[in-house]
Amino acid sequence: PMNRSSPNSRTPAEGPATLHRAAWLVPVESPPVPDGAVLTRGGIILDAGSRRELLGRCPSGTAVADHGDAALLPGLVNAHTHLELSALRGAIPLPQPGFASWLRELFALRADLSPEALEGAAREGETLLADGGACLYGDITNGARLRAPDAGEFPARQTFLEVLGFHLASLDAALQPGFQNAPDGPPGTPPVSLAAHSCYSASAEVIRQAKQWTRKRGLPFSIHAAEHPEEMEFLRAGTGFCRTLLEMLGKWTPCWHPPGTSPVRYLERLGVLDEKTLLVHVVHMNPEDWEAVSRSGCSVCFCPRSNCNLNVGRADLQEALRRGLPAAVGTDSLAGNTDLDLFAEAAFMLEQYPEADPWSVLKMLTAGGARALGREDLLGGITPGKRAHMIAVSLPGVLPVSHLAENIILQGSKGSWQWTNPPAIG
């Protein structure tokens, strides 16, 4: 049986070195290496390359962990989740007719959830993420999980406090009291950042000031953008479900005028698109939108199964790949998805986008996600200095490099993988 336990990830320390060997080393950020190896110590990668080369560079007393006919690759990165909503797993029938029907179901069910239930569900979600191969994730919270990660917490996370308030004129009015002066977490842990929910649920000033807040601190900023047709209609004409929803919630602003443009170009007009902005979903995009994303250098995050389950449309993955945009993958929440398994998400992508290059999808699952969450210095690849959170995916015999990425994804989606379990850190 495969060992699916998560790697220990306490504070790095000196200790015995381990040489991990496998049929293929897949660093992601560089070409795959046959008969590859990774030298680690204290949970940190010291060296990576061919087994023959590394054997000559190993320190005395190095242990060898042979993973056989497998591919070694970095732990995966789930760039967009709502772990609090794990409490609603299986509660909303999927697929839904559309976004409006799904949101009505969500509102009705979430109202009965206590903060304790949300926190407990989020912790269960963390286990599901690790069981799906994720070593890092971006989590959107509405307040139940408003704390920085513990030192050494696994999987690692970037928490985003979601700000809303279409009727509000400032970020201070949208934030919980005391948030701006809250202390950061332990050394080595990323501070809590901000995510504006969307262009139809947060005012222009709330979005602009939230981005300014994150920009001042060098933190990533996230926002749902161009997810569903109702959003597009609202920004274009100020009509439809989004306006009805705001009126029902008592948050409609009569003096507001629709910008008459797309969400992406509206965000560009607000000055919030840059290399630390993550646009989530990007389903309804036109050439001008893609050009704006290219100019800004921001990342995009695709959530294809969520989009399918909510019946909101199909994102143009191929256009993002053609342009070489920084791209990531997210599972979204268990209120709109059946699991938090990134390999399953990637297998769905290969099925729905047969023209997509499997290597590009694999990069989105790893380096792309780490870059989107601002953690590319430590995760998302297999290079010296990064954390040794690696997984070994069993391969169905000898494979040419041309079939390697696709088989990694398909085998991973079948559960044929394990954490390499580096030595205890610290």
SS-based class = alpha/beta
Mean pLDDT across residues? 92
Largest sheet: 8 strands, parallel
- Helicity level, as a percent range? 25-40%
State the total count of DSSP E strands: 15
Query: What is the distance, rounded to the nearest whole angstrom, between the alpha carbons of the first and last residues?
Result: 28 Å
Low-confidence runs of at least 5 consecutive residues: 1-6, 8-13, 422-426
Give the amount of beta strand, in percent.
15-25%
Tell me the strand order in the biggest sheet.
6-7-8-9-10-11-12-13
Which word captures the global form?
Answer: globular
Number of helices: 14
Tell me the series of helices and strands, N- to C-terminal: EEEHEEEHHEEHEHEHHHEHEHHEHHEHE
Radius of gyration, Cα only, in angstroms?
Answer: 22 Å
Describe the structure.
The protein is α/β, with parallel strands linked by helices and 426 residues long. The chain contains 14 helices and 15 strands. The chain has helices at residues 51-55, 99-110, 115-131, 171-174, 204-217, 229-237, 241-249, 263-270, 287-296, 304-309, 317-323, 342-352, 358-372, 404-413; strands at 17-25, 33-41, 44-50, 63-66, 70-74, 76-81, 134-141, 156-163, 193-196, 221-225, 277-281, 299-302, 327-329, 390-394, 417-419. Helix 8 (263-270) packs parallel to helix 9 (287-296) and helix 12 (342-352) packs across helix 13. It is globular and about 70 Å long. Mean pLDDT is 92; it is low at 1-6, 8-13 and 422-426.
